[in-house]
Amino acid sequence: MSDSRPYRKFAPGTQPEYLHPPYVSTVKRAPAMPLILLPHSKTELTGPAFGHSLVGAADSDLTKQHAGEPLGERIIVSGRVLDEAGRAVPGALVEVWQANAAGRYRHKTDQHGAPLDPNFSGGGRALTDEAGRYRFVSIKPGAYPWGNHYNAWRPQHIHFSLFGAGLLTRLVTQMYFPGDPLLEFDPIFNSIANEAARRRLIAKFDWETSQPNHALGYHFDLVLRGRDETPREK
Amino acid sequence: MSASQTVGPFFVIGLEHLHRADLAIPGAAGIVITIRGQVLDGDGQPVPDAMLEFWQADAHGNFSEHKCEAAGDTPARFTGFARILTDPAGAFELRTIKPGCVPGADGETQAPHLAVLAFMRGLLKPLYTRIYFAGEKANDADALLRLVPAERRSRLLAKTRGAGHAFEWNVVLQGPEETVFFEW
Protein backbone atom coordinates (compact mmCIF):
# COMPACT_ATOMS: atom_id res chain seq x y z
CA MET A 1 0.00 0.00 0.00
CA SER A 2 1.46 3.35 -0.96
CA ASP A 3 1.99 6.13 1.56
CA SER A 4 -0.81 8.66 1.14
CA ARG A 5 0.10 11.10 3.92
CA PRO A 6 0.29 14.69 2.65
CA TYR A 7 3.31 16.93 3.20
CA ARG A 8 3.35 19.24 6.20
CA LYS A 9 2.59 22.92 5.87
CA PHE A 10 5.45 25.40 6.26
CA ALA A 11 5.87 27.14 9.60
CA PRO A 12 5.06 30.86 9.08
CA GLY A 13 8.08 32.98 8.14
CA THR A 14 10.37 30.04 7.42
CA GLN A 15 9.96 30.30 3.64
CA PRO A 16 10.15 33.50 1.55
CA GLU A 17 7.06 35.00 -0.05
CA TYR A 18 6.94 35.23 -3.86
CA LEU A 19 6.66 39.02 -3.74
CA HIS A 20 9.58 40.60 -1.89
CA PRO A 21 10.04 44.10 -3.36
CA PRO A 22 13.56 44.68 -1.93
CA TYR A 23 14.57 41.91 -4.39
CA VAL A 24 13.46 43.90 -7.43
CA SER A 25 13.10 40.99 -9.88
CA THR A 26 10.23 39.57 -7.80
CA VAL A 27 7.99 42.51 -8.74
CA LYS A 28 7.37 41.39 -12.34
CA ARG A 29 7.63 37.67 -11.67
CA ALA A 30 5.64 36.96 -8.49
CA PRO A 31 2.10 35.80 -9.24
CA ALA A 32 -0.47 38.54 -8.60
CA MET A 33 -3.60 36.38 -8.35
CA PRO A 34 -4.34 34.28 -5.27
CA LEU A 35 -2.74 30.85 -5.17
CA ILE A 36 -5.02 27.83 -4.90
CA LEU A 37 -4.30 25.37 -2.10
CA LEU A 38 -3.07 22.13 -3.64
CA PRO A 39 -4.40 18.81 -2.34
CA HIS A 40 -1.53 16.30 -2.34
CA SER A 41 -2.35 13.45 -4.70
CA LYS A 42 -0.23 10.64 -6.08
CA THR A 43 1.18 13.14 -8.58
CA GLU A 44 2.80 15.10 -5.77
CA LEU A 45 3.62 12.21 -3.44
CA THR A 46 5.69 10.46 -6.11
CA GLY A 47 8.69 11.98 -7.87
CA PRO A 48 11.69 11.30 -10.08
CA ALA A 49 14.65 9.13 -9.06
CA PHE A 50 18.24 9.54 -10.19
CA GLY A 51 20.92 7.00 -11.12
CA HIS A 52 24.63 6.90 -10.40
CA SER A 53 25.48 7.44 -14.07
CA LEU A 54 24.56 11.10 -13.53
CA VAL A 55 27.48 11.57 -11.16
CA GLY A 56 31.08 11.15 -12.36
CA ALA A 57 34.20 11.21 -10.17
CA ALA A 58 35.05 14.86 -10.92
CA ASP A 59 31.48 16.02 -10.32
CA SER A 60 31.94 16.25 -6.55
CA ASP A 61 35.44 17.77 -6.75
CA LEU A 62 35.21 21.13 -8.50
CA THR A 63 39.00 21.55 -8.19
CA LYS A 64 39.66 18.53 -10.41
CA GLN A 65 37.66 19.40 -13.53
CA HIS A 66 40.55 20.95 -15.48
CA ALA A 67 44.25 20.41 -16.14
CA GLY A 68 45.34 22.80 -13.38
CA GLU A 69 44.11 23.79 -9.94
CA PRO A 70 41.68 26.71 -9.64
CA LEU A 71 42.78 29.81 -7.74
CA GLY A 72 41.24 30.47 -4.36
CA GLU A 73 40.82 29.16 -0.85
CA ARG A 74 40.24 25.38 -1.05
CA ILE A 75 37.16 24.21 0.86
CA ILE A 76 35.41 20.94 1.68
CA VAL A 77 31.64 21.31 2.04
CA SER A 78 29.87 18.34 3.57
CA GLY A 79 26.73 17.54 5.47
CA ARG A 80 23.58 15.48 5.46
CA VAL A 81 20.24 15.66 3.72
CA LEU A 82 17.49 14.97 6.25
CA ASP A 83 13.72 15.09 6.37
CA GLU A 84 11.84 17.11 8.98
CA ALA A 85 11.78 14.13 11.34
CA GLY A 86 15.59 14.00 11.23
CA ARG A 87 15.73 10.87 9.09
CA ALA A 88 18.44 10.55 6.45
CA VAL A 89 17.42 10.96 2.82
CA PRO A 90 19.56 8.48 0.84
CA GLY A 91 19.94 8.70 -2.94
CA ALA A 92 19.06 12.41 -3.03
CA LEU A 93 20.46 14.24 -6.06
CA VAL A 94 22.41 17.31 -4.88
CA GLU A 95 23.43 19.77 -7.62
CA VAL A 96 25.62 22.81 -6.92
CA TRP A 97 26.89 25.85 -8.81
CA GLN A 98 28.94 28.85 -7.78
CA ALA A 99 31.14 31.79 -8.81
CA ASN A 100 34.92 31.47 -8.90
CA ALA A 101 37.22 32.93 -6.23
CA ALA A 102 37.10 36.33 -7.94
CA GLY A 103 33.30 36.43 -7.88
CA ARG A 104 32.75 35.62 -11.55
CA TYR A 105 30.44 32.96 -13.00
CA ARG A 106 31.39 31.06 -16.12
CA HIS A 107 28.27 32.27 -17.90
CA LYS A 108 27.75 34.48 -20.96
CA THR A 109 25.47 36.93 -19.17
CA ASP A 110 27.82 37.54 -16.20
CA GLN A 111 29.28 40.97 -17.04
CA HIS A 112 31.28 41.43 -13.81
CA GLY A 113 34.78 42.66 -14.66
CA ALA A 114 36.49 40.10 -12.42
CA PRO A 115 38.58 37.47 -14.22
CA LEU A 116 37.46 34.02 -15.26
CA ASP A 117 39.58 31.13 -14.04
CA PRO A 118 40.49 28.68 -16.83
CA ASN A 119 40.69 25.94 -14.20
CA PHE A 120 37.24 26.44 -12.70
CA SER A 121 33.78 25.78 -14.14
CA GLY A 122 31.80 25.99 -10.90
CA GLY A 123 29.26 23.17 -11.35
CA GLY A 124 29.01 19.87 -9.49
CA ARG A 125 26.70 17.14 -8.26
CA ALA A 126 26.48 14.17 -5.94
CA LEU A 127 24.05 11.54 -4.71
CA THR A 128 23.68 11.16 -0.95
CA ASP A 129 24.81 7.88 0.62
CA GLU A 130 22.81 5.57 2.91
CA ALA A 131 23.20 8.02 5.81
CA GLY A 132 22.12 10.98 3.67
CA ARG A 133 25.68 12.32 3.47
CA TYR A 134 27.18 14.36 0.62
CA ARG A 135 30.61 15.95 0.18
CA PHE A 136 32.04 18.49 -2.27
CA VAL A 137 35.57 19.83 -2.69
CA SER A 138 35.71 23.33 -4.17
CA ILE A 139 37.13 26.81 -3.68
CA LYS A 140 35.45 29.56 -1.68
CA PRO A 141 33.36 31.66 -4.09
CA GLY A 142 33.93 35.42 -4.17
CA ALA A 143 31.33 38.09 -3.47
CA TYR A 144 30.12 39.90 -6.58
CA PRO A 145 28.16 43.03 -7.53
CA TRP A 146 24.67 42.89 -9.02
CA GLY A 147 22.21 45.45 -10.33
CA ASN A 148 19.46 45.19 -7.72
CA HIS A 149 20.22 48.58 -6.10
CA TYR A 150 23.11 51.03 -5.76
CA ASN A 151 26.34 49.29 -4.69
CA ALA A 152 24.59 45.94 -4.29
CA TRP A 153 26.83 42.92 -3.60
CA ARG A 154 25.81 39.30 -3.15
CA PRO A 155 27.38 37.62 -0.13
CA GLN A 156 29.59 34.62 -0.89
CA HIS A 157 27.35 31.64 -1.58
CA ILE A 158 26.99 28.25 -3.23
CA HIS A 159 23.70 27.37 -4.95
CA PHE A 160 22.17 24.00 -3.98
CA SER A 161 19.40 22.08 -5.80
CA LEU A 162 17.89 18.93 -4.25
CA PHE A 163 15.39 16.22 -5.05
CA GLY A 164 14.10 14.05 -2.19
CA ALA A 165 11.61 11.20 -2.27
CA GLY A 166 8.61 13.06 -3.73
CA LEU A 167 8.01 16.00 -6.05
CA LEU A 168 7.06 18.31 -3.17
CA THR A 169 10.40 17.79 -1.42
CA ARG A 170 12.05 19.75 -4.25
CA LEU A 171 14.35 22.39 -2.81
CA VAL A 172 16.59 25.04 -4.35
CA THR A 173 18.53 27.15 -1.89
CA GLN A 174 21.86 28.86 -1.25
CA MET A 175 24.57 28.12 1.30
CA TYR A 176 26.22 31.14 2.88
CA PHE A 177 29.45 31.49 4.88
CA PRO A 178 29.75 32.43 8.58
CA GLY A 179 30.77 35.98 9.41
CA ASP A 180 30.01 37.42 5.96
CA PRO A 181 29.41 41.18 6.46
CA LEU A 182 27.26 41.34 3.31
CA LEU A 183 24.52 39.08 4.70
CA GLU A 184 22.71 41.85 6.55
CA PHE A 185 22.38 43.87 3.34
CA ASP A 186 21.30 41.05 1.03
CA PRO A 187 17.59 41.14 0.03
CA ILE A 188 17.64 37.50 -1.10
CA PHE A 189 18.98 36.16 2.22
CA ASN A 190 16.69 38.55 4.13
CA SER A 191 13.59 37.44 2.19
CA ILE A 192 13.27 34.78 4.92
CA ALA A 193 11.44 36.52 7.77
CA ASN A 194 12.33 34.02 10.49
CA GLU A 195 15.81 34.62 11.86
CA ALA A 196 16.46 31.01 12.87
CA ALA A 197 15.44 29.82 9.39
CA ARG A 198 17.81 32.39 7.86
CA ARG A 199 20.68 31.27 10.03
CA ARG A 200 20.18 27.65 8.98
CA LEU A 201 21.37 28.68 5.52
CA ILE A 202 24.77 29.69 6.93
CA ALA A 203 27.29 26.83 6.93
CA LYS A 204 29.38 26.18 10.03
CA PHE A 205 33.15 26.16 9.96
CA ASP A 206 34.08 22.53 10.65
CA TRP A 207 37.43 21.75 12.24
CA GLU A 208 36.80 18.01 11.96
CA THR A 209 36.50 17.95 8.17
CA SER A 210 39.24 20.53 7.58
CA GLN A 211 42.41 18.90 6.23
CA PRO A 212 45.82 20.03 7.53
CA ASN A 213 47.85 21.92 4.92
CA HIS A 214 45.06 21.41 2.38
CA ALA A 215 41.52 22.72 2.85
CA LEU A 216 39.05 24.33 5.27
CA GLY A 217 35.91 22.37 6.11
CA TYR A 218 32.36 23.70 6.20
CA HIS A 219 29.35 21.76 7.47
CA PHE A 220 25.94 22.33 5.89
CA ASP A 221 22.88 20.16 6.53
CA LEU A 222 19.78 20.44 4.36
CA VAL A 223 16.30 19.59 5.62
CA LEU A 224 13.67 18.57 3.07
CA ARG A 225 9.96 18.87 3.57
CA GLY A 226 8.42 16.02 5.61
CA ARG A 227 5.05 14.29 5.64
CA ASP A 228 2.38 14.50 8.30
CA GLU A 229 3.14 11.93 10.98
CA THR A 230 -0.37 10.50 11.08
CA PRO A 231 -2.03 8.82 8.10
CA ARG A 232 -5.06 10.48 6.53
CA GLU A 233 -8.48 9.05 7.18
CA LYS A 234 -9.78 7.31 4.10
CA MET B 1 12.78 22.48 6.42
CA SER B 2 15.54 24.52 4.83
CA ALA B 3 14.39 27.84 3.36
CA SER B 4 14.14 28.24 -0.39
CA GLN B 5 16.25 30.75 -2.32
CA THR B 6 16.18 31.77 -5.95
CA VAL B 7 18.02 29.79 -8.64
CA GLY B 8 19.35 33.15 -9.88
CA PRO B 9 20.50 33.80 -13.45
CA PHE B 10 23.44 31.37 -13.67
CA PHE B 11 21.88 27.96 -12.89
CA VAL B 12 22.87 26.60 -16.31
CA ILE B 13 26.30 25.89 -14.78
CA GLY B 14 24.92 23.33 -12.35
CA LEU B 15 21.60 22.24 -13.83
CA GLU B 16 21.97 21.95 -17.60
CA HIS B 17 23.46 18.43 -17.41
CA LEU B 18 19.95 17.15 -16.67
CA HIS B 19 18.23 18.98 -19.54
CA ARG B 20 15.65 16.45 -20.81
CA ALA B 21 13.13 17.64 -23.41
CA ASP B 22 12.13 14.29 -24.92
CA LEU B 23 10.48 11.61 -22.81
CA ALA B 24 8.93 9.72 -25.72
CA ILE B 25 11.29 6.78 -25.83
CA PRO B 26 10.91 4.39 -28.76
CA GLY B 27 8.39 1.66 -28.07
CA ALA B 28 6.67 3.34 -25.13
CA ALA B 29 2.92 2.76 -25.02
CA GLY B 30 0.71 5.73 -25.76
CA ILE B 31 0.40 8.75 -28.01
CA VAL B 32 3.46 10.91 -28.67
CA ILE B 33 2.65 14.58 -28.11
CA THR B 34 4.55 17.86 -28.18
CA ILE B 35 3.80 20.76 -25.86
CA ARG B 36 5.23 24.11 -26.92
CA GLY B 37 5.03 27.39 -25.11
CA GLN B 38 6.65 30.47 -23.70
CA VAL B 39 7.35 31.87 -20.26
CA LEU B 40 6.21 35.52 -20.00
CA ASP B 41 6.81 38.02 -17.17
CA GLY B 42 4.57 40.78 -15.79
CA ASP B 43 5.39 43.06 -18.75
CA GLY B 44 4.58 40.29 -21.23
CA GLN B 45 8.29 39.93 -21.94
CA PRO B 46 9.75 36.46 -22.59
CA VAL B 47 11.83 34.98 -19.78
CA PRO B 48 14.96 33.55 -21.41
CA ASP B 49 16.44 32.33 -18.13
CA ALA B 50 13.70 30.10 -16.73
CA MET B 51 13.80 26.38 -16.01
CA LEU B 52 10.72 24.16 -16.13
CA GLU B 53 10.53 20.71 -14.59
CA PHE B 54 7.76 18.30 -15.57
CA TRP B 55 6.55 15.17 -13.76
CA GLN B 56 3.90 12.91 -15.25
CA ALA B 57 2.43 9.42 -15.33
CA ASP B 58 2.81 7.09 -18.30
CA ALA B 59 -0.01 6.28 -20.74
CA HIS B 60 -1.47 3.79 -18.24
CA GLY B 61 -1.56 6.36 -15.44
CA ASN B 62 1.40 4.90 -13.55
CA PHE B 63 4.29 6.95 -12.17
CA SER B 64 7.64 5.46 -13.12
CA GLU B 65 10.18 4.27 -10.58
CA HIS B 66 12.90 4.08 -13.23
CA LYS B 67 15.89 6.29 -12.54
CA CYS B 68 16.92 9.19 -14.74
CA GLU B 69 20.38 8.44 -16.12
CA ALA B 70 23.16 10.46 -17.75
CA ALA B 71 22.57 12.22 -21.06
CA GLY B 72 24.00 10.22 -23.91
CA ASP B 73 22.82 6.98 -22.39
CA THR B 74 19.74 6.35 -24.51
CA PRO B 75 16.94 6.08 -21.98
CA ALA B 76 15.52 2.58 -22.18
CA ARG B 77 12.57 3.31 -19.97
CA PHE B 78 10.00 6.00 -19.48
CA THR B 79 11.01 8.06 -16.40
CA GLY B 80 8.26 10.70 -16.41
CA PHE B 81 10.69 13.51 -15.54
CA ALA B 82 11.72 16.34 -17.86
CA ARG B 83 13.76 19.50 -17.27
CA ILE B 84 13.84 22.23 -19.91
CA LEU B 85 15.81 25.48 -19.84
CA THR B 86 13.99 28.15 -21.85
CA ASP B 87 15.67 29.50 -25.00
CA PRO B 88 16.50 33.18 -25.74
CA ALA B 89 12.85 33.72 -26.77
CA GLY B 90 11.63 32.32 -23.45
CA ALA B 91 10.29 29.29 -25.31
CA PHE B 92 10.32 25.57 -24.58
CA GLU B 93 9.22 22.40 -26.33
CA LEU B 94 8.52 19.10 -24.60
CA ARG B 95 8.08 15.86 -26.54
CA THR B 96 6.47 13.18 -24.43
CA ILE B 97 3.80 10.52 -24.10
CA LYS B 98 0.31 11.70 -23.27
CA PRO B 99 -0.30 10.70 -19.63
CA GLY B 100 -3.25 8.52 -18.64
CA CYS B 101 -5.73 9.16 -15.84
CA VAL B 102 -4.19 8.78 -12.36
CA PRO B 103 -5.58 8.33 -8.83
CA GLY B 104 -6.55 11.52 -7.01
CA ALA B 105 -6.26 12.65 -3.38
CA ASP B 106 -9.50 11.05 -2.25
CA GLY B 107 -9.66 7.89 -4.29
CA GLU B 108 -11.11 9.72 -7.27
CA THR B 109 -9.65 9.70 -10.76
CA GLN B 110 -7.67 12.67 -12.00
CA ALA B 111 -7.83 13.78 -15.63
CA PRO B 112 -4.61 13.40 -17.67
CA HIS B 113 -2.14 16.06 -16.55
CA LEU B 114 1.51 16.97 -16.03
CA ALA B 115 2.85 18.65 -12.89
CA VAL B 116 5.11 21.63 -13.62
CA LEU B 117 7.60 23.42 -11.37
CA ALA B 118 8.94 26.75 -12.65
CA PHE B 119 12.25 28.23 -11.47
CA MET B 120 13.85 31.54 -12.42
CA ARG B 121 15.62 34.65 -11.22
CA GLY B 122 13.02 36.68 -9.31
CA LEU B 123 11.31 33.58 -7.90
CA LEU B 124 12.42 32.96 -4.34
CA LYS B 125 10.69 29.57 -4.46
CA PRO B 126 9.42 27.50 -7.38
CA LEU B 127 5.92 27.98 -8.78
CA TYR B 128 3.72 24.88 -9.06
CA THR B 129 1.12 24.49 -11.79
CA ARG B 130 -0.31 21.76 -14.01
CA ILE B 131 -0.95 21.13 -17.67
CA TYR B 132 -4.32 19.58 -18.54
CA PHE B 133 -5.61 18.95 -22.07
CA ALA B 134 -8.42 20.97 -23.66
CA GLY B 135 -11.45 18.93 -24.69
CA GLU B 136 -10.64 16.02 -22.38
CA LYS B 137 -13.85 14.47 -21.06
CA ALA B 138 -12.28 13.59 -17.70
CA ASN B 139 -11.58 17.28 -17.00
CA ASP B 140 -15.18 17.84 -15.87
CA ALA B 141 -14.78 15.48 -12.92
CA ASP B 142 -11.19 16.43 -11.97
CA ALA B 143 -11.07 17.44 -8.30
CA LEU B 144 -8.22 19.91 -8.72
CA LEU B 145 -9.73 21.67 -11.74
CA ARG B 146 -12.96 22.05 -9.79
CA LEU B 147 -11.07 24.00 -7.10
CA VAL B 148 -10.13 26.60 -9.73
CA PRO B 149 -12.67 29.39 -10.42
CA ALA B 150 -14.43 28.49 -13.68
CA GLU B 151 -13.24 31.63 -15.49
CA ARG B 152 -9.58 30.78 -14.79
CA ARG B 153 -9.70 27.04 -15.57
CA SER B 154 -8.77 27.47 -19.23
CA ARG B 155 -5.32 28.78 -18.19
CA LEU B 156 -4.42 25.24 -17.19
CA LEU B 157 -5.45 23.70 -20.50
CA ALA B 158 -3.01 22.92 -23.31
CA LYS B 159 -4.67 23.76 -26.61
CA THR B 160 -4.35 21.79 -29.84
CA ARG B 161 -2.19 23.54 -32.43
CA GLY B 162 -2.12 22.38 -36.03
CA ALA B 163 -1.98 18.81 -37.20
CA GLY B 164 -0.83 15.79 -35.24
CA HIS B 165 -0.66 15.86 -31.49
CA ALA B 166 0.83 19.31 -30.97
CA PHE B 167 -0.29 21.48 -28.06
CA GLU B 168 0.38 25.01 -26.85
CA TRP B 169 0.61 25.92 -23.17
CA ASN B 170 2.23 29.04 -21.70
CA VAL B 171 3.47 30.16 -18.31
CA VAL B 172 2.14 33.70 -17.81
CA LEU B 173 3.43 35.14 -14.54
CA GLN B 174 1.05 38.12 -14.25
CA GLY B 175 -1.81 39.92 -16.00
CA PRO B 176 -5.29 38.92 -17.20
CA GLU B 177 -3.95 35.67 -18.68
CA GLU B 178 -2.02 34.77 -15.51
CA THR B 179 -1.42 31.05 -15.15
CA VAL B 180 -3.14 29.35 -12.22
CA PHE B 181 -0.49 28.61 -9.61
CA PHE B 182 -0.96 26.46 -6.54
CA GLU B 183 0.18 26.80 -2.95
CA TRP B 184 2.01 23.50 -2.60
3D architecture notes:
Helix content of chain A is 4%, strand content 25%. Chain A has 234 residues and is mainly β. Chain A has a single domain, classed as Protocatechuate 3,4-Dioxygenase, subunit A, CATH 2.60.130. In chain A, the strands form 3 sheets. In chain A, strands 3, 6, 11, 12 and 13 form a 5-stranded mixed beta sheet that branches. In chain A, strands 5-4-9-10 form a 4-stranded antiparallel beta sheet, with no helix packed on it. The two termini of chain A are 13 Å apart. Chain B is mainly beta. Chain B has one domain: Sandwich (Protocatechuate 3,4-Dioxygenase, subunit A). Chain B is built from 2 helices and 13 strands, in the order αβββββββββαββββ. The longest helix of chain B is centred in the C-terminal third of the chain and has 5 residues. The mean pLDDT of chain B is 95. Chains A and B meet through strand 1, helix 1, strand 2, strand 4 and strand 5 of A and helix 1, strand 3, strand 6, strand 8 and strand 9 of B.
Give a quick set of tags describing it.
heterodimer, A: 234 residues, mainly beta, Protocatechuate 3,4-Dioxygenase, subunit A, 4-stranded antiparallel sheet, 25% strand, globular, B: 184 residues, 9-stranded mixed sheet, two-stranded antiparallel sheet, 2 helices, 5% helix
Please specify the SSE layout and strand pairing:
The complex is a heterodimer of chains A (234) and B (184).
Chain A (H helix, E strand, L loop, with lengths): L35 E2 L4 H4 L3 E2 L23 E10 L9 E5 L25 E5 L5 E7 L4 E3 L5 E3 L2 E7 L7 E6 L18 H5 L4 E2 L10 E4 L2 E3 L10
Parallel strand pairs in A: 3-12, 3-13
Antiparallel strand pairs in A: 3-6, 4-5, 4-9, 7-8, 9-10, 11-12
Chain B lengths: L11 H4 L16 E9 L9 E7 L10 E2 L12 E5 L5 E7 L4 E2 L5 E2 L2 E8 L6 E7 L9 H5 L9 E4 L5 E3 L2 E2 L9 E2 L1
Parallel strand pairs in B: 1-11, 1-12, 9-10
Antiparallel strand pairs in B: 1-5, 2-4, 2-8, 6-7, 8-9, 10-11
